[in-house]
Each structure stands twice: as structure tokens, then as C-alpha cells.
Design goal:
about 25% strand, 19 helices, SIS_dom_sf, transferase, alpha/beta, six-stranded antiparallel beta sheet, eight-stranded antiparallel beta sheet, 24 strands
């Protein structure tokens, strides 16, 4: 989950690398460091804590000029977040510096091997093992690129390695396995990084790196090979967003900016998805219509907020396409010996496209001959490349760790998939599908309406700033939204928050109800079978026991309003699409409550944006 930057070119590499690390700090903020090769040795500065600590240390002890540099912002796995464990790590002879994202699973046996060879690691990290292996290899007379090809196959697990050699100060060498790495292509300069955000201020031209590839960059060249030294496939692409998209735009938090970008993000996800007659056209799919018609089971795999988007997808896909659909945590999928095969469509949802659990799950599914369709936001990501088909959400960069626009656009992509399958299989008439597509087209306006009418949410956050426990209830598609609302509070405010299916209330959770306990309830639209009546009954049950009911209900619903301690009004939408408007007040509430409690909303403790290790 760590952030990595490497640079070769005429600029001051320290300035370039540190600026890149600032834009990658969402990936980890336990420590940060930078290293440059100069005067025949490595010079580095690294500090525990936020990047501001690194910047202060660099101001006090500037690094010398160089033609290359590497840097790292860490989310701790092996070893506590202290200076000693911060990256870059430097070999005992001072020749090689290395930064690393991922986990080297066989680090203990490799450490024993090094110790037997007289090398004494000084940190607690698995990363230091790799730098000593590289140093031992180059000491034998080979260059750093060849050394990387020798060392990388010996490492088990997921990793991105980026290294510099003091004897070759104008070169950066990197390798990747199951961990993100992209190359930025500039004019007389080149970059490597975990994410294009690190170099977007300098270039929007990038190169995808494949699995088990090694890249060597200088100011003028990029060489990509596999681990055997054979030329690797180079797949350039253009980044379709700019630096301004990664800045806060006047908001106090990236998260708040991204919440307010959701109408635009939804519109981008829908752009070009249907023809003038309302028929869906998903050009990104690389699975034939014939194969999709033969699918008899869908399995959605995801983690965190993406998992809740998958839960909504189940309701939509089964209702519209009439295909049995399961939703599974990606971290559990391959460990239960799942039954999948050629007629199974596995739908993998990941904002970053690099989520390690989800990546391992899709590889397992493909090994069982299942077809894989991914829904992700990041062009060129590993999950997108390794899937048979992809629906890109086009939400733009999401910097805040807690997902907002990423989640909403995943919902939209799931709806598009469900409708497309219904269109192919003939389970819905064309005019029915066109009507839902038309309603989706109105969603940006509906979400903007919720954002414009957020005063009650702000006031509520002020009133509940001292709360230590908050519950969320929902039925049907409101249930995953209750789960998402609770997750946002846990992520940002660090308080006890739980989401429950409202129908399960009397099966245990009602014992938690006490006087003045805040309970958010997502009420389905009126007229949806018996759902509305049943949820109103649930509200009456908890209010009778002293709960403070915060009711999210559509405008013009006097029955739900009559039982609300606080009413949050939602635009009128159909039941299956209600999550798009219902989740927005919960996002705003979590953001505002955490702000009032003095928390860092964009960098919640112990969390990172992209979970690139299992």
C-alpha cells in the first residue's frame, strides 16, 4: 500500500520525488524518505510520521544534486513506523538504495541466508533483505538491471522494487509482481511511481508495466524486459485527467471535494454508454454476447465499500437479468474452494484496480476457467489488465482514503452491467431498459439536490460530535447503504458504528437500543411492495425504546416523517437506484463529524487508499 516515486532527469530529483510523495501520501503516512546517488555513494534522509517531517529534515540537511532519485511513503507492515524502518533502505556498503511496496513472504529464510553470509540487517523490515541481495549481486560485477532480474524471482509474495546504484547515478531500475507500478514518459526525463498522480504535474504520457517485468529508466531512455531479459511489451497510454483534478479545489478535505464531485463523476461513468434509442453499448467489454448469454451464475468479489456496491449489484442483476448472483468478500473467496467454471461470470470491483485480495481472487477464478469482468476506476491497473472485460468508472482521481465518488460510480457501473445483461438475454423489454437508463441520466441532478440541501446533516453532526455509538438500519438495497454508512463512521470518526438489516432487528440487535442512541434508518420509497411499511414498523420499534431516529426518506413521505426525530429528505427515485442518493448524506455526515472531532479526514489512522497486500 506504500507510495513509490523514482525520477531521472535534469530537475532536482529531491524536489520531484517529494512532490510526488505528497500526492501519494494517501497510500501510507507512517514514514517517508528519499535517496539520491551522489559522489559514489547513496545519500538518504528518512523520517517517521507525515511527509512534513521529511521536508523539515531535508531543509535542515539538504541532499546533494544528482541525476536520479527515489522516494517512499510507508504504510507499515514489517516493523514499527520508526526512522530505522523507514524507506529507502541502503546496503551495508552504501552502494544500493531501495524502496519497496508489498510483502516479501520468504524474508525470514532470506535473512538467515544473508546472516550466514556475514550480512547483519539493522531494521525489522522485509525490504532490507532485498537491498542486501541486490548489493551482493552487483558486487559480483553485474549492473543493477541484471541484478534486479536475478533477485526478483527469489522473492515470494507481492512487491514493487525501485532501486538506484551509486556507481550508475543516472539510472533507476524497478520491478513489479502483484503490486502497482507505472512509468511516466517526459521530454528528457522519466518517472516510475505507484500511481500516475505522482508525476501528472510533469507528463500525462504513461506506460503500463506487466507482471514480472523490469524497467530501467534514464533521462533519455526506457527499457522494459521480463525477468529473463527478453524485451517486454510496452503499452503506452494517455492519462485523461490533469494536476488540477488532484488538488482540493478550495475544500478543506479531498474527501469533501470528492463528495461534491459525485454528480460530475456519475455523468462521466454514463458517458457514451447508450445509443440514441436507449440501448446500452458497453464497448469496453471483451466478452462476446454469445458467452454472456450462456452465463448461469454471477459471483461478485470485492472488499470494503466495493463489497457493499456488490451487494447492491446482486439486487439489480437478479431483478433485471434473472441470473443467480452471489456476493463474496474477495479475501475469503479462494480459501473456501469456490465452485466456478466456464459458465460463471466473476465480477471484480476495485476502485484502484490493485486490491491484492481481489487480484488473487480473480486469478483463482480464471484458473477455474471462469470469465472475469472488472469494474475499476484506474486505467492500466493490474486487475483491469488481467480481466477478460472491464467497465471503467471514469470517476477521476480519488485521493481521500474513504471512498465516496468511487463508490457511487461503482454502483452506476453495476447498474449498467445488470441492464446490459437484461438487454442481451431479453429479460427486460427495450423500453423498460431505456426508462431505467433515462433515470440514471437524471441521477447527477438528484445527487446535486442532496448536496445542495445538506444543512440538516451539518447540524446533526454538530449535535452528535460526542456520540460514541451510532447504528444504521436498512432493508433491500438500503441494507448495504446502512453498512456503508457505518463503515464511513468507523473509518473517519473512530467510533462504534454498525449497520444491520432492519428485518434482523428483533433477532438480536434491538438489545443495543437505549435512550437517545442515534439510529439512522434508510426508508425505501413508498409503494415498493411491503418494504416501506415494514421499515416504518422498525422505526416505531426502536423509537419506543428511546432511540433517536434519523430517518432518510423520500420527499413527500409523511408516514416516515411522522416517526423521525430528525428527517433527511431524499429525491424521489426508484427503489433500486435509491442507494445513489441515500448514501450521500451518510458520506457528508461522517466527513463533518470527523472534522468536528479534529480527525484527519483524508488520512484516517491505520488505513491506506490502496490495499496492495493480502
Amino acid at each position: 500500500m506504500c507510495g513509490i516515486v523514482g525520477y531521472c532527469g535534469p530537475r532536482d530529483p529531491v524536489d520531484v520525488v517529494v512532490a510526488g510523495l505528497r500526492r501519494l501520501e494517501y497510500r501510507g503516512y507512517d514514514s517517508a524518505g528519499v535517496a539520491v546517488p551522489a559522489d559514489g555513494r547513496i545519500r538518504e534522509v528518512k523520517k517517521a510520521g507525515r511527509i512534513a517531517n521529511l521536508e523539515a529534515a531535508l531543509a535542515a540537511d539538504p541532499l546533494p544534486s544528482s541525476g536520479a532519485g527515489i522516494g517512499h511513503t510507508r504504510w507499515a507492515t514489517h516493523g514499527a513506523p520508526v526512522d530505522l524502518n523507514a524507506h529507502p533502505h541502503v546496503s551495508a556498503d552504501g552502494r544500493i538504495a531501495l524502496v519497496h511496496n508489498g510483502i516479501v513472504e520468504n524474508w525470514a529464510s532470506l535473512r538467515t541466508e544473508l546472516e550466514a553470509d556475514g550480512v547483519a540487517p539493522v531494521s525489522e523490515t522485509d525490504t532490507e533483505i532485498a537491498v542486501h541481495l541486490l548489493a551482493r549481486a552487483v558486487a559480483g560485477g553485474i549492473d543493477l538491471t541484471t541484478a534486479m532480474r536475478q533477485v526478483a524471482p527469489r522473492l515470494e509474495g507481492a512487491f514493487t522494487l525501485v532501486a538506484v546504484d551509486a556507481h550508475d547515478p543516472g539510472t533507476v531500475v524497478a520491478a513489479r509482481r502483484n503490486s502497482p507500478l507505472v512509468v511516466g514518459v517526459g521530454q528528457g526525463e522519466h518517472f516510475v511511481a505507484s500511481d500516475v498522480a505522482a508525476f501528472i504535474a510533469h507528463t500525462r504520457e504513461a506506460i503500463e508495466l506487466g507482471q514480472d517485468q523490469v524497467v530501467t529508466i534514464t533521462a533519455d531512455t526506457v527499457e522494459v524486459t521480463d525477468l529473463d531479459g527478453a524485451p517486454g511489451e510496452v503499452r503506452p497510454y494517455h492519462v485523461d485527467w490533469d494536476l488540477a483534478a488532484a488538488e482540493k479545489g478550495g475544500h478543506d478535505w479531498f474527501m469533501r471535494k470528492e463528495i461534491h464531485e459525485q454528480p460530475e463523476a456519475i455523468a462521466h461513468t454514463l458517458l457514451g454508454r447508450h445509443d440514441v434509442d436507449g440501448r446500452l453499448v458497453l464497448d469496453e467489454l471483451r466478452i462476446s454476447e454469445e458467452e454472456l448469454r450462456l452465463v448461469d451464475t454471477i459471483v461478485v468479489i470485492a472488499c470494503g465499500s466495493s463489497f457493499y456496491a456488490g451487494m447492491v449489484a446482486k439486487y439489480a442483476i437478479e431483478h433485471w437479468a434473472r441470473i443467480p448472483c452471489e456476493v463474496e468478500l474477495a479475501s475469503e473467496f479462494r480459501y473456501r474452494d469456490p465452485i466456478v467454471g466456464p459458465r460463471t461470470l466473476v465480477v471484480a470491483i476495485s476502485q484502484s484496480g490493485e486490491t491484492a485480495d481481489t487480484l488473487m481472487a480473480i486469478r483463482h477464478a480464471r484458473a477455474q476457467q471462469a470469465r472475469v469482468l472488472s469494474i475499476c476506476n484506474t486505467n492500466g491497473s493490474t486487475i483491469a489488465r488481467e480481466s477478460d472485460a472491464v467497465i471503467h468508472t471514469h470517476a477521476g482521481p480519488e485521493i481521500g482514503v474513504a471512498s465516496t465518488k468511487g463508490f457511487l460510480t461503482q454502483l452506476v457501473a453495476c447498474y449498467l452491467l445488470g441492464l446490459y445483461l437484461a438487454q442481451l438475454r431479453g429479460t427486460k423489454f427495450d423500453d423498460e431498459i431505456a426508462a431505467v437508463v433515462a433515470e440514471l441520466e437524471r441521477m447527477p441532478v438528484m445527487v446535486q439536490q442532496v448536496l445542495d440541501d445538506h444543512g440538516v446533516v451539518t447540524e446533526l453532526a454538530a449535535e452528535l460530535a460526542g456520540a460514541r455509538s451510532i447504528l444504521f438500519l436498512g432493508r433491500h438495497v438500503g441494507y448495504p447503504i446502512a453498512l456503508e454508512g457505518a463503515l464511513k463512521l468507523k473509518e473517519l470518526a473512530y467510533i462504534h458504528a454498525e449497520g444491520f438489516a432492519a428485518g434482523e432487528l428483533k433477532h438480536g440487535p434491538i438489545a443495543l437500543i437505549e435512550q437517545d442512541l442515534p439510529v439512522f434508518v434508510v426508508v425505501p420509497p413508498q409503494g415498493r411492495d411491503q418494504l416501506h411499511t415494514k421499515v416504518v414498523s422498525n422505526i416505531q420499534e426502536i423509537r419506543a425504546r428511546g432511540a433517536r431516529t434519523v430517518v432518510l426518506a423520500e420527499e413527500g413521505d409523511p408516514i416516515a416523517a411522522a416517526h423521525a426525530s430528525v428527517l433527511i429528505t431524499l429525491p424521489k427515485v426508484s427503489t433500486l437506484l435509491q442507494p445513489l442518493v441515500a448514501v450521500v448524506p451518510l458520506q457528508l455526515f461522517a466527513c463533518e463529524l470527523a472534522t468536528r472531532q479534529g480527525h484527519d479526514v483524508d488520512h484516517p489512522r491505520n488505513l491506506a487508499k490502496s490495499v496492495t497486500v493480502e
